Amino acid sequence: MSLALEKIEALAPDQASLAAAAKIRPGAWSLRALNDTSTFVWGECQGSGSTPYRVCIETADLGAKCSCPSRKFPCKHSLSLMLLLAKSPQSFQATSAIPDWVNDWAGRRRPARASKADVGDKPRASLDAAFEKPAAERSEKAEARAAQQRDRLRAQREEAILAGLDELDRWIEDRLTRGLAGFVADAPQQCRVLAQRMVDAKAPGLATWVDSLPSDILALPERMRSDAVIEALGSLHLLAQAYRRQDQLPEALRHDVRRLVGWTQERQALLDDTSALRISTTWTVIATHTEVQPDRLRRIESWLMGVQADTPIYAVLIDFVPVSTGAGGSSLLPGEVFSAELVFYPSAVPLRAILAKRGDPPPAMPVQAAPLDAALDAYDDLRAAQPWLGRWPMTVSGVTCHSYGADGLWLVNGKAGVPIAPRQQDEACVLASVSLRSITGIWDGRFFTAVVAETALGRWMRQ
Q: Is the CATH number 2.40.50 carried by domain 267-358?
């Protein structure tokens, strides 16, 4: 089937949306499909985030839904998919299998038809205007001035960060001088003030870390809090010292230090970096996690496991969206399997990545799980290379899940043991009654959060 361009132009909320839709290249769509009766059309478009936006359209009334945070309706991704259907319907894959996320949307929507009056009241967008020749490029002098301005702002930010690190050192010294006995009680107020000063110092990464410190500490059992405070303050001090001496660090670790402080790398710059680590394989979504940060950004994590030479490899895709947009969680679903090329951010221990290309979902590949003691030794080696590592996925075999009364559930193999995260005790208790063939989870140095387990009774997945 095909659509009339005039109908799409009439649907566009404004000229800017139509122009933006026309500029989305067909190559940005890793998936374009429609069902056999051409009732529904859907696709996946790579946007500015690490995971593609999912778009679905009902052709009867051109009702559309997109997972992007845009408040315009239809958004540029929905309009782009309509334009592709109008211009090259043969490029869409016809299938009888409609994805669950399309069926879910179709079951909840109510078809809405715009009245002629509504269409006539708004200025009509035009594809001819969308392809008008852009304004002339800026002169070389203007480009040079812009480059000088960027360099000046960068130098000012470096100076502000160094001043902020001096203040961080004084704050840590003051906490140690006063003693840590009352730190937990006063931590929310103390950390909030320091976090704001880190924002003023243009170090947003440090600000988020400091702001979340009280909740991280209070989430631990009381017997572990004092040690956790000392470890956290030590890690902050180490990061401050590493930033001041970043020129002496290995290049990969230098990227880690700057990212932790708050410097970012744009998606396109990472894709254009020929030295960046790229891995193409079959990926399985093992877990998704969403949390609201103190800066009112929703952090959306999608944890992936791939296979290389029968050995598990891991990646995490992270998106940040303002809470005000209402965007919920990851567009990927736990258990979803797909082939893709991921590009990893420079790091001494690469983990965070972005999705560059996505292919058809192939069958899952077998994974060679490691013994628990070997996996813990590997984690220690990784943390030696990157001291602020924090959470890291691992897949282990040869373990059993035991309950030790007040100490809760543990995974053990006779040589080592790790406690199950306190918040997961009730959910994971079923694992204590079945034979485990392998289990994958996230280890943070203190607790193991189970996400997928292969048992004698079948697969268990975290809810």
A: yes
